[in-house]
Amino acid sequence: MTRQPLKLAFAAAATLGALGLALPATAALKTGAVAPDFKTSAALAGKTFDFKLSDALKKGPVVLYFFPAAFTSGCTKEAHDFAEATEDFAKLGATVVGVTSGNVNRVAEFSKVECRDKFAVAADPDKSISKSYDSVIPVVGYTDRVSYVIAPSGKITLVYSSMNPDQHVARTLAAVQALKSGK
Q1: CA 111 to CA 116: how far, in whole Å?
Q2: What's 48's domain CATH number?
Q3: DSSP 3-state of 4
Q4: Which run of H or E residues covers position 160?
Q5: Which residue, 43, 53, 137, 175, could crosslink 111 as a Cys pair with Cβ 3.0–4.6 Å?
Q6: Quick check: is 6 in a domain?
Q7: Are strands 39-44 and 47-52 parallel, antiparallel or unpaired?
Q8: CA 150, CA 144: separation in Å to the nearest integer?
Q9: Can you give the pTM of this predicted structure?
């Protein structure tokens, strides 16, 4: 997708939101729900592989975060923040994976450049994963900015939805810490 249609879509979303027309970032899946399993193409350090949620959960909790589009300012900031915190998540046994509606070539580049080779990014070109997590922005159709923490049991322990990328890492890290400490 070229930058111009993406800019127009985000401008439309901002305009609708400013008018109060139902664009708050919200997620339908709630804490305690079972996370839908999925398998998709992902990339880590620019190299593609098959990612399956249930396989990742066998290793520990999963921080699954959805973001609108690779190489946009908010998504780049969020990727940098998650990259900086990857070691903290790993010490707690957690896997971080980002999901966006881009294609696998685009997420491969994003995983290398903006995720700094630290965590995987999954492609969701048909938005089937995003839809199963109700993480699609109504009207605009792009992936919403929603973060989930999923326990190894498959239950969702945190849902944080905000188009502002600033608190996603702090909130998910706190939730993984609470999960690990049994709180």
Answers
A1: 6
A2: 3.40.30.10
A3: helix
A4: strand 156-161
A5: 43
A6: no
A7: antiparallel
A8: 18
A9: 0.84
